[in-house]
Specification:
This protein is α/β, with parallel strands linked by helices. Helices cover about 40% and strands about 10% of the residues. Strands 6-5-4-8-9-10-11 form a seven-stranded mixed beta sheet, sandwiched between helices. Strands 1-2 form a two-stranded antiparallel sheet. The radius of gyration is 25 Å and the shape is elongated.
């Protein structure tokens, strides 16, 4: 099927979109109109009320009929939380709140007080005995595995300040003699693998070996993890490849949900080694065979946190549309919804606007090569279904597993030319591991930023801020030759770290626009900016496009001011908006 694209837009109408599509599917230049005076409020209202009009504007009626699309397919929820799969069972909130405190690192863990510890263990006991009230969710096997793994690792390996509190000890002494009678053996093993923690003599933990060959491998790995130890590269990959993909049944892939959730959260609590992270990162590279290679000069892989933004404007989709205008191709990847944040993602925005969000890696290659596009989005559901099968389990373990770091550094499509990776981290300590994974990928340049995503802001750091890294802190590496990270030596590859002050580049300090989980609000801000409406969202898109070009060593971006001007021109000319609208249409036409 030939790919049809939208002609250059010009703006002289009082409505958001006024597009008439001819019978042959072409769109005359004169039929795409957008008002430069269209207010943000009206734009937001139009997105919410006329989403189907937008879809029909960029997809001709024949294509809509051929694809079997209906208006209901595009009236998607406006809030990110409504994209959660309703078929997934919900976790018990009392236990989940406790997991948020204890299923984390050696210094971040917050021991439970006595009242909360008693409440949690009482809930676990009543759940195991089937005595919960109608309005209480069952404590899932994944929750049991994660919670008791956290308690075991804290007792065995954490510093004194984050080991069990006196209240936790009293609660466990009170409830464990009852709980041990009703919990399955796999959970008892996780809670007391050597029979030395609970003070109640039991041979279940020391003698437990699992119920299958795969489970035996996992139990052996867990004995090391629950003692605060680490695994080798082959051990981690062996477990992942045997267990995944998960199924929704109680027993999936021959492994208990409790054991696997303990495995995932335990490795994160012990702070993964480089070899463990590499194992997670590379485990499913060949799930669909070798990745396709796009005939593009330059390709940037964007590794935004998969769990999205809950408070502030997420700009990467619009930055990609801008950078593609001057042949800096961009590949975005992510999911429709992901815990723990469950925030706004690129997939939600694209789906809301009517784009095809089931693009395969091979189709993404075509979109990247399309002259009027140059960017693409691939869902983890299509690229790595084994990893996507973990979404439900990840909600029940509460905290981010090692995959939350590794999944951001993927090469779902390769490029014939230069490649770069851009990713973000939430917690100090993950900056260097992310850069290590990028070098392991062999890309020519890499860039990481704090605050979850490398999406720099024009706001100033608060004068009272004393913790964490500075606002707009980023670090990375770039090659000065055509050599990849594998080939570059210490002379040809430059490493750097920098705190970006937007004022230095002529930007007026402004607060980052809030979206508060609103998909439609995020789209409204992005489209208004691509339409040329000046303000915080426009500045943020320009800043991130221009500075990423500069930091990655892209052609034509050696001078920062020229890189920023190039980004502004892509917006002000209407080219970036045109490419985003083209994507909505063409994503449905690739073979």
């Amino acid at each position: 099927m030939a790919m049809k694209v939208l002609p250059n837009a010009y703006f002289n109408s009082s409505s958001l979109f006024s597009i008439q599509i001819s019978k042959n599917g072409s769109v005359p230049h004169s039929q795409i109109q957008m008002s430069p005076h269209f207010s943000a409020r009206n734009l937001h209202s139009s997105i919410r009320q006329n989403g189907w009009v937008l879809v029909k504007a960029v997809l001709d009626s024949a294509t809509i009929d051929q694809l079997g699309l209906s208006e209901s397919d595009f009236r998607n929820p406006a809030l990110s939380s409504s994209y959660r799969n309703s078929k997934l069972p919900k976790p018990n909130q009392i236990v989940l709140e406790a997991q948020a405190r204890v299923c984390t690192g050696p210094t971040q863990t917050k021991p439970l007080g006595e009242e909360q510890a008693f409440k949690v263990l009482d809930t676990i006991l009543r759940s195991a005995k089937g005595e919960l009230q109608d309005d209480e969710e069952e404590v899932s096997k994944a929750q049991l595995g994660a919670f008791f793994a956290a308690m075991t690792i804290r007792a065995n390996a954490f510093p004194e300040a984050t080991q069990w509190s006196e209240g936790e000890r009293r609660a466990m002494n009170t409830y464990w003699p009852q709980i041990i009678r009703v919990l399955p053996d796999d959970v008892i093993f996780v809670a007391d693998p050597e029979g030395s923690i609970m003070g109640v003599g039991s041979s279940i933990g020391p003698q437990y070996v699992g119920d299958s060959t795969t489970e035996m491998r996992l139990v052996g790995a867990l004995r090391e993890i629950l003692a605060g130890g680490h695994l080798g590269y082959e051990e981690v990959q062996g477990v992942l490849r045997e267990v995944l993909p998960l199924k929704l049944e109680d027993k999936f892939s021959g492994v208990s949900e409790s054991l696997f959730s303990a495995f995932l959260i335990g490795q994160r609590m012990n702070r993964e080694t480089d070899r463990e992270l590499k194992a997670y990162c590379l485990a499913f590279d060949d799930e669909h065979g070798a990745p396709p290679v796009a005939e593009v000069r330059s390709l940037t892989h964007y590794g935004e946190p998969y769990d999205g933004n809950t408070r502030y404007f997420r700009s990467t989709l619009f930055v990609a549309a801008v950078r593609s205008c001057y042949d800096e191709s961009c590949l975005l990847h992510g999911v429709d919804w992901m815990p723990p944040k469950g925030g706004v993602t690129e997939e939600q925005m694209l789906k809301f606007m009517g784009a095809n969000t089931s693009v395969t890696p091979n189709q993404a290659k075509q979109l990247l090569e399309e002259q009027e596009l140059g960017f693409a989005y691939v869902s983890q559901r299509e690229a790595h279904p084994s990893l996507y099968s973990l979404v439900g389990l990840r909600e029940h373990i509460k905290k981010r597993p090692p995959l939350a770091t590794a999944e951001k550094v993927q090469q779902i499509v390769r490029a014939r030319g230069r490649e770069a990776v851009v990713a973000g981290f939430y917690h100090e300590g993950y900056e260097e591991p992310l850069l290590m994974l990028m070098r392991r990928r062999g890309v020519h340049s890499g860039l990481v930023g704090e605050e979850g995503a490398l999406s720099m802001t024009t706001r100033m750091r608060s004068a009272s801020a004393s913790k964490g890294l500075p606002v707009n802190y980023c670090s990375g590496f770039r090659s000065h030759t055509g050599a990849s990270a594998f080939e570059a030596d210490g002379v040809s590859r430059e490493s750097f770290n920098i705190e970006v002050n937007a004022k230095d580049y002529g930007f007026v300090p402004t607060d980052t626009p809030r979206t508060d989980r609103s998909v439609s609000r995020n789209i409204e801000l992005g489209l208004a900016a691509l339409r040329g409406e000046k303000g915080p969202a426009y500045d943020r898109i320009v800043l991130n496009a221009g500075l990423v070009d500069h930091f990655l060593g892209c052609d034509g971006a050696e001078d920062v001011s020229q890189a920023l001007d190039r980004a502004r021109e892509a917006i002000d000319s209407g080219k970036a908006l045109k490419r985003l609208l083209n994507y909505i249409k063409i994503s449905h036409e690739v073979n």
